[in-house]
Amino acid sequence: MKRKLKSMVTTLFVSALLPVLVILITIKVASYRSTPITVDIKYKADHISSVDHSQFKILQQDFNMPQEVTSACLSCHTGRDEEVMATAHWKWEREEEIPGRGMVSVGKKNLLNNFCTGANGNNGSCMRCHIGLGWKDKSFNFSDNKNIDCLVCHDQTDTYFKQKGEGGMPATHETANSHYQVPDYPYVAQNVGLPKKNNCGICHFYGGGGNNVKHGDLEEALLSCSKEVDVHMTMDGPDMACIDCHTTERHNIKGKLYSVSSANHNRIDCDQCHTATPHNDKLLDQHFEKIACQTCHIPEYAKANATKLYWDWSSAGQLDEDSKGYSEDDADGNHNYLSIKGNFVWDDHVKPEYYWFNGTADHFLTTDTITDIPVKINTLFGSYKDSTAKIWPVKVHRGKQIYDTKYNTLISLKLWAKTEGEGAFWKDFDWDKASKLGMEYNDRPFSGEYDFIPSEVYWPINHMVSPKEQTLECTDCHSKKSRLANLTDFYLPGRDYSKKVDYAGNSLILITLIMIALHFIGRITSTLKSK
Amino acid sequence: MNSVKIYSRFERFWHWTQMLLIILLGLTGFEIHGSFTLFGFEESVRLHSTAGWSFLILTIFAAFWMIVTGQSRQFIPVRNNVKSQIMYYLSGIFKNEPHPVPKTAEQKLNPLQRIVYFGLLILVFPVQLTTGFLYLFIHYPNKPITIEGLESIAILHTIGAFLLVVFIIVHLYLITTGHTISSNLKAMITGYEKLESPVNKTK
What we know:
The complex is a heterodimer of chains A (531) and B (203). Chain A folds into three domains: 51-92 and 130-193, no CATH class; 96-117 and 212-477, no CATH class; 497-526. Chain A has 16 helices and 15 strands. Chain A has helices spanning 2-30, 66-76, 80-85, 88-91, 123-126, 150-154, 185-190, 197-204, 242-245, 271-274, 282-285, 293-297, 425-428, 431-441, 474-477, 499-530, and strands at residues 94-98, 102-106, 248-249, 252-253, 307-312, 327-329, 335-338, 342-347, 353-357, 361-363, 375-376, 378-380, 390-404, 409-410, 450-460. In chain A, strands 5, 6, 7, 8, 9, 11, 13, 14 and 15 form a nine-stranded mixed sheet that branches. A two-stranded antiparallel sheet of chain A has the order 1-2. A two-stranded antiparallel ribbon of chain A has the order 3-4. The radius of gyration of chain A is 31 Å and the shape is globular. In chain B, helix 2 crosses helix 4 (111-137). Chain B is mostly helical and 203 residues long. Chain B has a two-stranded antiparallel ribbon. The longest helix of chain B has 29 residues, at 41-69. Chain B has a single domain, classed as Transmembrane di-heme cytochromes, Chain C (Fumarate Reductase Cytochrome B subunit, Up-down Bundle), CATH 1.20.950. Chains A and B meet through helix 1 and helix 16 of A and helix 1, helix 2, helix 5 and helix 6 of B.
């Protein structure tokens, strides 16, 4: 009896309790999570100025022109002009190595795009976002330090603006109108400091002719947004300014965008604050090897206002009965047709597209001829086997733009002019003239024959980081409906499988089950018969 | 008929722990594979990796135990009676014929079982463990060694998983073909089975 009891206890122990215990320990170990690291840094924007600029006599004078303010600034801040004049903000180009091309100087100054095709030649309008004063044409003096516009970046009063159509000049007594008054220079000059969000945003939010047109992840909503829109810039959180991440040394601002740059340096990385192992969890942290932080943490962009995703120039130029340009809006109130620009598609809460990206990019240069359709305005380099490449979220702006059918080149258009009759498309709606003048200004040949061709430009997404609760789930990528469906150069668990193996395996299971069923029926029949 | 001890305490512990681990690995593994949703992808990945470690440790213990006790010889395939064992399952079993190879404590496995289990121990388990741990540690190119990606590793691992599923199905069915429908199962739980030949009685 006692032996039987002992044997039962042993049985219970070795055949049930111990195995279950092993499983429970396994589950317990698997459920362990460590807490993510927290970031504790001092924000650059919290810097308190060591001087009171309003006390300086030199800033109390009656300035007539902004150049006089610049001179006053430089009289104390000696040497800063050289720093500023070495930056891409000033030069609108930088010497960079493009893999396969060597050293090339690229920037807004000389690159083509599939928005307004290019800045050069439309200076009055486009160069309003240059940090100089009055880059109206080729005569602008890039070596004159008085042409630096200190105020546009350092104004703390929100009263200093560059006037529309004046190539980066604020209103003067001659040009002032109801929209643009002559700035109160002494007031502005006495209230200068580190750039605030709107100093940067006045240009970087409105590129392409309106809020959020170009970037999709940089727009005026960031000035005062909820944490769902951006965890860093939200008023309900750290309320960070641009320069808190875009740290600056000697006017060289870290970070750049690959629609206009090529080389992998002077970039900002999340890990400059968050470390390379921010989750403090091996399973998640090892994704950093191949996945940019942005990929999971920016599940969608254009979270507040819509961004432009498609721009078809070929329909531009249609006029109403009075031979005037007109506009049409979509259901959300965004233009979907403008006579001066053509058809658009806008969208908000956009899911990014995903590409391999190693920090280097190529560009379609003005000297290039078209070989592929759609024309790739820029190319992000990288692949799975490239050890420096990661998967990045990208805004792809697609378009249909004008090109020279004989020379196979993209056309730089003359779009803007102050008045009609100067040949600018936006005033005269004449493709021939606008193409001819645009190409002439850019010293490029134009055959006179043109058509429209699809093109794409790739903008890596970096802003509008979501709260951690809203990041991508595993199955957003690791599933048959993967967001990474177009990245097919590697095996992704959950998404990929061998069709043959799955077919064979499932068939084998099915055949086994059928044979077992038949065998079992045979056994039952024979048992019944024998009885 | 005598009650004979067939499976030692360790063997039973090994068997049932292995069973639970294989079920856990199968469920989580096929969820990662995309076959169904159960625990959630992340939970499945964590469970699968941890269960893989448990399985490795158990396998090391089992291998050690088998070699030390000499029980490993039970799994070495034999040539005799393979055909008659196949014929038994194909026809004899329907005619209520006796098992062609009597089960004894020295000979727990029939010739077919030996072949299948030997295949599991020498091929499927090592392949699953090897590809599993390669999957866990070498899932990126150039880190730490140059591989062409996960594809071949993952597909081998999937093949092994399908074979294990088929094995489990067949195994579950064949349990019922013992002396009585439940005698095999009982033996694996209690360790004891009623066997015919009194000659083979041990302690």
